[in-house]
Amino acid sequence: MSYTHPEYRLSLSSFFRLRPASALLARGTEGEAVADARRLHRIDWMGDAVTEGAEWPRAAAEAEEGTLTDLPELPSGEDARATAAFIRAALEDPALVPKAIRRQVDVIAALP
Fold first, then answer.
1. Quick one: which of 1, 7, 17, 53 has the most CB atoms within 10 Å?
2. Distance between CA atoms of 11 and 58, rounded to whole angstroms?
3. Could you tell me what percentage of the chain is helix, strand and coil, using 3-state DSSP and rounding each to the nearest 5?
């Protein structure tokens, strides 16, 4: 589940407290459930049992803060053809996958 505005994190967390589910909650890009290739955003895990006094939601990853100093190489165009070509190239050469995307995959893969 993704959200755009920080206050939505609170309302979505409250929803999942009332309706427990194995869910990830992450800050999206313009509200879309896509990873930001430039930096890792906070990812919350809501699959643990809710216990009184427990941190809820539990941060699976904290957001990278500060000024971006190292931008990943991304496709020159934003159209579907350029994006598809970049994805094909990254599937053949994983070193092309931006560091922030690799970190997000690692965080998600490490969850129970």
1. 1
2. 15
3. 35, 15, 50
pLDDT for res 17: 79
Residue 77 pLDDT more than 60? yes
Residue found under tokens 């699976």: 60
User: pTM of the full predicted structure?
Assistant: 0.74
Report how far apart, in Å, the C-alpha atoms of 28 and of each of 4, 18, 37, 88, 94 are. Answer: 6, 23, 11, 23, 23
pLDDT category at 6 given cuts 50, 70, 90 is confident
d(CA 33, CA 78) in angstroms, rounded, equals 17
- Model pLDDT, residue 70: 81
If you ran DSSP here, which 8-state letter would residue 30 be given?
Answer: T
Strand order in the sheet with 2-3: 2-3, 24-27, 43-45, 58-61
Neighbours of 46 (CB within 10 A): 22
